[in-house]
Amino acid sequence: MRHPTKYFIWNKLSDFRRGSHYNMDASSSGIQLANIQQEEGYYYSRLLDTREKQMQWHRLLVEGETISESSIRVWIYTSESPMIYAEDKEWNVENVLGDTTISQKEKQRLFQPYLVRVIDNPKDCLLHDVQGRYLWFCIRFVAQSGRSPSITKMKWIFPKNTWLQYLPDIYQDNQESASFVERYLGMFQSLYQDMTAAIWKVPQYLDADVVTGPFLEWLTSWISVEDSYLWNEEQLRYLLKHGIELYHKRGTVQYLEEMVRLYTGRSPFIVEQHDLEAYLDQSGYAEELRILYGADNYTFTVIVDCEKQISNRDYQVLTRIIEQAKPAHMESNIIVLEPYIFLDQHSYLGINSVLGRYGTLVLDGQSSIPFAALTEPER
């Protein structure tokens, strides 16, 4: 009979802190030696209860960094009761594990009769010989070359569902040969389970709200987003969610406005040559308009009003984004507005220039007036 797969997992700071430590440091990134000068440290887990007697444990998965073949060692203990007997005395395993006044050597001596497996530098281990309702473990870390090994994640999987049960009875009659076949099939079973788990997670790699890092950039390449490294993750998510809508707008003013707004946080002002036709025939304006916005019919001007001054890198990125968003036969001028009034330049009342009231001017020999301001006279 096949039983549903269950597991205990350590991958958060609260998980690692529930155990007892001897020269160990627990953090959000896992556990490692607190003091390398002491060369070794020990970590004891809490008591794991499967709630089923004679539970057959299946697999142990460990993620972390090892230094040598003996830098990490794991002792695995099991029992059918939370109470153990040692030295003609009954001990509560949970109390012994959590009691830091009991030395590490004393704990190992008390737990020795319940030891079922010792593993050096575990990564992916099948636990064919581990059986018991309750399980706890001890990890020893050994520093080498001034470095500490570490463990960032542990996953204990149970119960054992072996492929042997699907074979004819002849493969199960002999206990010795059945054990070999079970262990042999276990390798392929583990590979199959990992592949199945990866397949079930495929939707996560296609969900814009979940996917991160390289997968997010890879997805945006499906919708022809060039230079994805220019955008942060939230911006890439927006491009993914609105990819079809944006694709239909490519080469239009609306598309260009949306791409610039996505990067800068504010919508730009885009001036095309046909917007100026009504003013070109008026004397006194034509020459100034040509200076500000150009005279070529295939040139347009993007005026960006940023909340704060942009860096040289931001300007280069903005130039790249506009270059990718504009029609191929058009040329663009990019103007980043400054909060000053310059006559005959890009000064727009109410946008980057205002008429306001300023305080009384004080000349103290240490200040200067770099720009003039138009103010309402004092009454």
Give a short summary of the structure.
The protein has helices spanning 13-17, 93-98, 104-111, 175-200, 202-206, 213-222, 233-241, 243-249, 253-264, 277-280, 286-293, 312-325; strands at 6-10, 20-22, 24-27, 30-33, 40-44, 48-49, 59-65, 72-79, 83-86, 89-92, 115-120, 124-126, 134-142, 150-158, 269-271, 299-304, 331-336. The chain has 379 residues and is α+β, with helices and mostly antiparallel strands.
Overview of the molecule:
The chain is elongated, with a radius of gyration of 35 Å. The strands form 4 sheets. Strands 1, 3, 4, 7, 12 and 14 form a 6-stranded antiparallel sheet that branches. Helix 6 packs parallel to helix 7 (233-241) and helix 9 packs antiparallel against helix 12. It has helices at residues 13-17, 93-98, 104-111, 175-200, 202-206, 213-222, 233-241, 243-249, 253-264, 277-280, 286-293, 312-325, and strands at residues 6-10, 20-22, 24-27, 30-33, 40-44, 48-49, 59-65, 72-79, 83-86, 89-92, 115-120, 124-126, 134-142, 150-158, 269-271, 299-304, 331-336. A hairpin with a 2-residue loop joins strand 9 (83-86) and strand 10 (89-92). The protein is of the alpha+beta class and 379 residues long. The mean pLDDT is 84.
